[in-house]
Each structure stands twice: as structure tokens, then as C-alpha cells.
Amino acid sequence: MHEENGYIKGRGAQKNVDNRFFAASYEMRDDFLNYCEAEGDRADDNRTHYLEVFPKTIVNKVESRDVGMEFSMNAYQGCEHGCIYCYARNSHEYWGYSAGLDFERKILVKKNAPLLLEEKLRSKNWKAHPIVMSGNTDCYQPAEKRFQITRQCLEVFLKYRHPVAIITKNALISRDMDIVSALAKENLIGVNVSITSMNEKTRQLLEPRTATIAKRLETVKRLAEHGVPVNVMLAPIIPGINSHEILPLAKAAADAGALSIAHTVVRLNGAIGEIFTDWIQKAMPDRAEKVLNQIRACHNGALHDSRWGERMRGEGEFAEMMRSQMAMARRRFFAGKQFPELNTALYEQYKGGQLSLF
Questions:
Q1: Which of 10, 81, 178, 281 has its CA 20 to 30 A from that of 348?
Q2: Total-model pTM
Q3: Span 33-337: which CATH code?
């Protein structure tokens, strides 16, 4: 499980941090580790555990004005992808777990999500608004291959001709191309594929259990060939790690068939600041302080910024440089292209659910 320097291979976070809602804390003591070694036991087997939960609702109203969505739903809480910078890590504390390793090793599975979604879409008071799958955690993370909750939800969206958007960094969406392409024919789906680096080694460190860069670009191409509008998220941009890759990333996205690109500047709010700092000191010790200082330069001297309108775009010299490069990329590679608005007009005809799936 561990390399010689103690780095946990295949994971983003390198430790669990204290849950802010708990008075007690968890500590892996040296005497316990020595005991395990003497007994030939493992103190930590690094396995992923799937835990079923039973929410009462699945569609959430999004209050943030920064993220560009009104409603979201998440089939899973926690995410095995293990992206070290993920803003969703903090939400795992509400479930009683750590935002660190727990976030990527204790995955909460909502098997009743398709039923709850259908109940929502059949509600007399519901009006069609695009619902974003993966507003918090990736709906195509490894758990989806086993549980197929996302696929079942897409079947519900198609049954009711309701618009849906997806955010993912996994090629598994290709498995559901039959449903995705059927939705696309009626302009009911848009897909956002996240690609943060063209360097596979960087990808493995930042996002250890995600699809490779090549597979993600291939996924963008396949979606585009099936008439599915794709936006590529160059997010987050981390100064000193991938900030020099904006133009190459944009060109690769355009060449694969994406209609648009977007970016955010990394911000390390809540427990993520401690988790990221610990990670970079182990994963990239030669540039750890440089990167952390440049992140602070984007957020008025802190690792994060909570101000609406500023927290995801950043400020200062580095953030302005990123915006300039994004503007240049759009002019060079995306001129004349536009990501379409999704169709909300069909839903009322299918709201009763009487019509067949295909």
C-alpha cells in the first residue's frame, strides 16, 4: 500500500483530518503501528467501502451564484476518484466522516435515487429546469460500474423528456451512450468533461483514480460524434502545477469536438487546505511552498476566498494571467462555437409518464 516515503499510492489525500463537528479526534499512534507490524497485521488496508444510505429527497436547490446551476443531484456521496483539490470533501463531514481519506474510501450509495427522482419529476408543482448530476461528487465514479444508479436516473430523465446536465472525469459515460444519444436528439442533455492536465504523471498525482487523459479526450470525441454537446472544464487551474497548460488543454478539447471551455481557480476551503498542504509536501516537495504561495496570491493572501463572485475566479496577477489565457484560447479554438441551452419544452407533455421510454 505504501511506498518507502510513506506516500499512499492510488489515493489523493494522504491522511484523515479531524471532523470539525466532532469533539473527539482520530490518531494513528506509533505504538499501534509497531504492534501491527510485529503481529503481521495491516493498520490500514486502504480498501474502498460502499455504504448504503436512504435519503428522502434527491434533487437539491443550489444557492451558490458562482457555479452556474439551479438544481443538482448526487447518486453518491464521497468519491473514489480522490481528486486532492475537490471542494466536495468538506461535505463528507456532515455524514460523520473525514474530508481526507474517508472521502475517497467510504462511499455512500443512494440506491433509491431513481425512485426519488421520478417522484420529483411527477410532482404537480415541479417545472422543468436542467438538473445537474454530479453537482457535488462524480456520478460516473468507479461505484457506478457496480451499482448503475446514474444509468437508471438517465432512463428516468429520458422517460419524462426532462433536461439533465452531467459533470464527469470518467470515461464510463460511454457505457450509457444509447441513453445519452437519445437525450441529445431532443436537446435534453449537456455533458461537462473535466480535464486538468495533459501530463499523465500530474493527472495520477492530482486525480489518482480518474480516467486517463487519453480516455477523457476520446470520450469527448465520442460524445461529440453522437451529437452530444460537450463543455470541457479546465478546473481547477492550480498555479505552479497546471497553469502553464491552459492553451494546450484548450486546443486538445477543441480538436476532440468540445463546443466550449470553462475554468476555475483552485481554492482550498475548510479542511481541504490542510489536506492539500500535507499532500503537496509529500507528492511535490520541491515546489510545495512555491505552489502554496501562488495559490495565496490568488486569494488575497489566504488559501481560499469565501466571497461570492471572487472565490472561484481569484484575483491578482496569477488569476488575471489565467483569465487572459482563457480568453485567448476561446478566440483561437472556439470561435463561432456555442454550447446550447437545454430543451425544457417537452417535459409537460411527458409529465404523466405514460409514454414509452423510446
A1: 178
A2: 0.91
A3: 3.20.20.70
